[in-house]
Amino acid sequence: MLVFDQVDYYYRSRNPVLRQLSFEIRQGEFLSIIGGNGSGKSTLAKLMNGLLQPREGQVMLDHLNTRTPDDLGKIREQAGLVFQNPDNQFITTSVLDEVIFGLENLRVPRADMAGRANMALQAVHMEDYAEAMPHQLSGGQKQRVAVAAVVAMEPSIIIFDEATSMLDPQGRRDILELMNSLHRQGKTIIQITHHMDEILSSDRVLLLSRGEIAFDGSPSALFSSVSITEHQLSPPFAVRLHQALGLKAPLRADWKETVSALWATS
Amino acid sequence: MGYELNDVSVKLNGVEILQSVSCTLQEGKWISVIGHTGAGKSTFAKVMKGLVPFYRGEYTHDRQPLPRDSKGNMKAVPQIGYVFQYPEQQLFATTVYRELAFALTVKGESPGKVEAAVKTVMEQLGLPADLLQEKPFQLSGGLKRLVAVASVLITEPELLILDEPTAGLDSVHRTALLKQLQVWQREKNRTVLLISHQLEEVADYSDEVMVFQKGHLLAHLEANELFLKCADLLEQAGLPLPEPVQLLRLIEGISGRTLTPASCREEDIMQLVRNVWQSRGLHHEG
């Protein structure tokens, strides 16, 4: 379980980014974190795996504390982070080496490394690029490699910080399916996103606003109880369609089935 | 008039990554570039900016060939604004003000004119004035993007190329950016070349759309023509239809009617679908 207990965070300017944030994420949850630009989402992601430490309060992963230097290594093994910009995490000259690099740091036996790395590359459909140079790939391909590097480390929590934002529609679908697949395998998935259609399949949504939690609940409860346009966000197409046609049927990510069923019964 | 490529091909490490591309970017048009990851969109945009050499073909501006050296590199980079995929790659100054002022200052503009231009561009993109003294690197990803766009827009380029400018922006900033760019483009009759994976945005804002697939320019059509009449081309390029067009096709399928919306924009499609929905007796209850 990942626990935020009265966490405050500010950068050098001392303007508060996160204020008195308290919540728990249970093992195996699929959580989406949303909010406008500057609401504190990426700061929150960095606090989760100890890249940043709280100014006040505590972030605990089971019995490990991100403010305890000796715990940081274990926390980062358990909570992998996929960044917005994959260029920020590339350091080697081949895709395969990039995925293997993290495994070397975890002291995975050398005999197991290539197998785990290749499986991770297959999971993101990048196995044909194992020998390619990461910096020569397109933006979407780079992001898939970044996801593979984290998946290979087999963490219990994977945090996707707008990991789909640079991908083409197929790439986005691939990564979303990958998230769902990893979730089904028991991983805790935390995704930060601006794409509201991506949150419909998550268990729970946290809406951040000016560093505080403005909503904590299911996706359907969010769209029925919160005016998200006030938080610099807009509803996904499924919700816009429900509103435009005045549909009373339960909100589902697959709006086509809802429309077809209603038409057939009319 | 405008920028034109004629049979242009690009090789990287012996592999042809752009093949025989011919196109005209007409003045005053909003042209979007779509395609699967690795289809050649960014390479095409970099050729237009003169950042990538081509080994075959010709590049003209207002029918005048742009001079190149023997390796295919441009001798002078065209006066084209370019916003790269990742804004942090082009931010460098210690404050947002200095970042925005840089291009005009090196051109020798007076401090008064620079200050006025900075103020205007901040307003155009809806950025608050108190951001000017902030460090660009400490801004959120979305705000960095807006500052990066502003730093290019301030030079008032004839052709503005944006490589996925809305990725990382929340919807308020995304809509604000696109709407402000549209106002700027129309008022000044400028050309916008937008690379995007967001097909709904492409359908809402574009006059024309270029579809790339495996280094080829598969199609260059008016947006309405492409999205409403040429779905097979999108399928061929491995791209889905925008969700409003998918809705239109679904309603056509289940109603047995051919529907012709005013345009491929979501607003027009939703209006037509709402009318059909209500004519079926499925009245709006909301």
TrEMBL record, chain A:
PANTHER family: ENERGY-COUPLING FACTOR TRANSPORTER ATP-BINDING PROTEIN ECFA1 (PTHR43553:SF24), HEAVY METAL TRANSPORTER (PTHR43553). The keyword Transport applies. Belongs to the ABC transporter superfamily. The keyword Translocase applies. It is a peripheral membrane protein. Keywords: ATP-binding, Cell membrane, Membrane, Nucleotide-binding, Translocase, Transport. SUPFAM superfamilies: P-loop containing nucleoside triphosphate hydrolases. InterPro entries: AAA+_ATPase (IPR003593), ABC_transporter-like_ATP-bd (IPR003439), ABC_transporter-like_CS (IPR017871), ABC_transpr_CbiO/EcfA_su (IPR015856), ECF_ABC_transporter_ATP-bd (IPR050095), EcfA_1 (IPR030947), P-loop_NTPase (IPR027417). Pfam families: ABC_tran (PF00005). Residues 2-235 form the ABC transporter domain. It is found in: Cell membrane. Its main location: membrane. It comes from the Bacteria. This is Energy-coupling factor transporter ATPase. Gene3D superfamilies: P-loop containing nucleotide triphosphate hydrolases (3.40.50.300). It comes from Paenibacillus phytohabitans.
TrEMBL record, chain B:
It is a peripheral membrane protein. It comes from the Bacteria. Its main location: membrane. SMART domains: AAA. The keyword Transport applies. One of its GO terms (molecular function) is ATP binding. InterPro entries: AAA+_ATPase (IPR003593), ABC_transporter-like_ATP-bd (IPR003439), ABC_transpr_CbiO/EcfA_su (IPR015856), ECF_ABC_transporter_ATP-bd (IPR050095), P-loop_NTPase (IPR027417). Residues 3-239 form the ABC transporter domain. It is found in: Cell membrane. Keywords: ATP-binding, Cell membrane, Membrane, Nucleotide-binding, Translocase, Transport. Belongs to the ABC transporter superfamily. This is ATP-binding cassette domain-containing protein. It comes from Paenibacillus phytohabitans. The lineage of its organism: Bacteria, Bacillati, Bacillota, Bacilli, Bacillales.
